[in-house]
Amino acid sequence: MEKIFITGINGLLGTNLTFDLLEKGYSVKGLIRNKSKFEGKNHPNLELIEGNLFDDLTQILKEIDTVIHIAAETSQNIINYYDYWKINCNATNQLLNSAILCKVKKFVFVSSVNTLGYGTLNNLGTEKDEIKSPLKSSFYALSKLEAENILLKDKDKIKVIIINPSFMIGAYDTKPSSGKIILMGLKKKIIFYPPGGKNFVDVKDVSRGIISSLNKGKNGEKYIIANENISYVGFFEKLNKLENQFPIMIRVPKAILIAIGYLGDGLRFFQLKTNLSSTNMRILCIDNFYNNQKSISDLEMEYLPIEAAIKDSIEYFKKKFK
């Protein structure tokens, strides 16, 4: 029985991945700050370990075949790059070194599609495309890219596989994180949407992609796990259809979003935390689209309709907030 160690086990992806791994017969150990926060059920092949990324994990990793590193700092209101770096880079490097020391066979790093160059519908971004503006100004994206480069330098010491998921949605988004976009449109009479778009993927697909990479992934390779390239208005139209709701749809002009972003920059200058920034607002105005063909050919991925992920997310939030 292959033994897996997962960080970020209680997040959107970590929870879904744990369910899938246990169902397929893997033994799973998961790092979690508080065991009571895990929404999964007890399982004989699951062990939850309370702690954080800066703990000495070598005693645990001595029994592990594969590390799947999901945990990351993803908040968009952080002002300084260092606050991303210490979690997304420094902690990742520490975990990597511990894995090498303990002779772990594989290190799967869940990064972000935003470390790669996005494209348009006619020229989709791929694993070979380099990050570009405005994402080059995103501290989160840059920290994940730096972590990728740290890992790839040691691919001769341990098998390194990098997973680059696009915008994940689905059930068990406990914070919520990406699921906020569902809550923005659910049962609203008016929906304001930005002019851009992005690639959306079912978290279940990302989970299956990671599991497939354990056997089919190649050392030192990056794999985009992504599905439908959709405008924001197109996404909300799908949500409206599923919920049989008819809100007023209002497109927020780019100029207004950028102005709001500059206001956020001013607040950040005075060390006030806010999700608003000119970088974040510019990202909402681009077509952040990607190609998933490498995952289909190498990992044999078959993707679920994004409507299934929207439905799962809606049902989860209705139960959580009822």
Question: How many distinct folded domains?
Answer: 1
Uncertain spans = none
**Element pattern in H and E:** EHEEHEHEHEEHEEHEEHEHHEHH
- CATH third-level topology: Rossmann fold
Q: How does this structure look, described?
A:
The structure is a single chain. The chain is α/β, with parallel strands linked by helices. The chain has one domain (3-315): Rossmann fold (3-Layer(aba) Sandwich). The protein has helices spanning 12-23, 58-61, 81-101, 139-152, 180-185, 203-216, 232-243, 254-269, 278-283, 293-298, 306-320; strands at 3-7, 27-32, 46-50, 66-69, 106-110, 159-165, 167-169, 190-193, 197-202, 221-225, 228-231, 248-251, 287-288. It has a 7-stranded parallel sheet with strand order 3-2-1-4-5-6-10, sandwiched between helices. The radius of gyration is 19 Å and the shape is globular.
Topology:
Layout: E1 3-7, H1 12-23, E2 27-32, E3 46-50, H2 58-61, E4 66-69, H3 81-101, E5 106-110, H4 139-152, E6 159-165, E7 167-169, H5 180-185, E8 190-193, E9 197-202, H6 203-216, E10 221-225, E11 228-231, H7 232-243, E12 248-251, H8 254-269, H9 278-283, E13 287-288, H10 293-298, H11 306-320
Parallel strand pairs: 1-2, 1-4, 2-3, 4-5, 5-6, 6-10, 7-9, 8-12, 9-13
Antiparallel strand pairs: 9-11
Descriptors:
11 helices; 4-stranded mixed β-sheet; Rossmann fold; 322 residues; alpha/beta; 7-stranded parallel β-sheet; single chain; globular
